[in-house]
């Protein structure tokens, strides 16, 4: 991960609340990367992230975080001012009762006293808020109109606009599964093909599933999910049925075992077949 949008998307995919992430000014940071992790090959989202704000946003942060302007806890200006340390650093020390604003500031940086931790905290909070705002813009860059519609539908499902049942059970779906469902809801509005979209949704969420239709004798659809039955998976099925199943249709759910099917060896195993 090298960009804040990459970290934000991975955090969303893993269910990490964006409000819990704190973007800290890196001390130190790499000039060649936006994110500064202990492990350069880090792939998991972190709650506290150190970044290099100048990597892409120098014009925004150049006045807020002057890289050569470091105030130590003892009330002195640290090494690096005017390009060096040693005697130069000692010459730039403030007096016991002086602040930076008293000596006119350096490089346009004003009003922060050497031993004022409140100012440091304020700057860190401002930095975090600004990066969160830039991250939100970054994540939305390149989104098409359909992506916005998908987000609106997901929000409506959570806010109860699709009914109380969906509001209470939609969380059984992962973030990616909610996107699949929302995208197919859009297609349902556009095409009205509820049976086709019901099957497509099941296949996308239960990737090993078999789908059978009995349209000649009765309107019935059989799903062989080939997975363990759990409360969470039952809730997913009920959400999909509620959104896509037409009134005239009936569905049968088989989890691990199903009736025998001639020509399909894995469905003709002794002791693993059921009656239809």
Chart the SSEs and their pairings.
Elements: H1 4-13, E1 22-25, E2 35-36, E3 48-51, H2 54-61, H3 87-91, H4 117-140, H5 145-158, H6 164-169, H7 175-191, H8 194-205, E4 210-214, E5 220-224, H9 231-244, E6 250-254
Parallel strand pairs: 1-3, 5-6
Antiparallel strand pairs: 2-3, 4-5
Helix pairs in contact: 1-4, 5-7, 7-8, 8-9
Q: Please, could you describe this protein's structure?
A:
- By secondary structure, this protein is mostly helical.
- It folds into 2 domains: 137 residues, no CATH class; 123 residues, no CATH class.
- It has 9 helices and 6 strands.
- The strands form 2 sheets. A 3-stranded mixed beta sheet has the order 1-3-2. A 3-stranded mixed beta sheet has the order 4-5-6, with helices on one face.
- Strand 4 and strand 5 form a beta hairpin.
- Helix 1 crosses helix 4, helix 5 packs across helix 7 and helix 7 runs antiparallel to helix 8.
- About 18% of the residues have low confidence.
């Amino acid at each position: 991960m090298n960009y804040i949008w990459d970290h934000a998307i991975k955090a969303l995919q893993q269910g990490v609340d964006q409000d819990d992430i704190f973007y800290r000014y890196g001390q130190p940071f790499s000039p060649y990367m936006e994110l500064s992790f202990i492990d350069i090959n880090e792939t998991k989202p972190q709650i506290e992230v150190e970044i290099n704000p100048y990597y892409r946003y120098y014009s925004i942060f150049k006045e807020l975080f002057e890289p050569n302007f470091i105030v130590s806890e003892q009330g002195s200006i640290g090494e690096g001012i005017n390009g060096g340390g040693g005697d130069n650093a000692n010459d730039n020390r403030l007096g016991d009762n002086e602040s930076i604003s008293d000596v006119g500031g350096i490089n346009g940086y004003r009003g922060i006293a050497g031993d004022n931790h409140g100012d440091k905290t304020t700057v860190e909070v401002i930095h975090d808020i600004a990066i969160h705002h830039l991250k939100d813009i970054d994540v939305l860059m390149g989104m098409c109109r359909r992506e916005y519609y998908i987000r609106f539908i997901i929000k409506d499902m959570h806010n109860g606009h699709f009914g109380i049942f969906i509001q209470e059970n939609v969380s059984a779906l992962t973030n990616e599964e909610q996107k699949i469902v929302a995208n197919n809801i859009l297609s349902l509005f556009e095409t009205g093909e509820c049976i086709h979209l019901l099957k497509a949704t099941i296949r996308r969420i239960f990737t090993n599933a078999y789908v059978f239709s009995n349209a000649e004798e009765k309107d019935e659809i059989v799903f062989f999910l080939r997975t363990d039955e759990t409360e969470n998976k039952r809730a997913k099925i009920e959400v999909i049925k509620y959104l896509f199943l037409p009134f005239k249709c009936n569905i049968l759910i088989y989890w691990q075992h199903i009736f025998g099917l001639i020509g399909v060896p894995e469905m003709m195993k002794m002791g693993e077949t059921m009656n239809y």
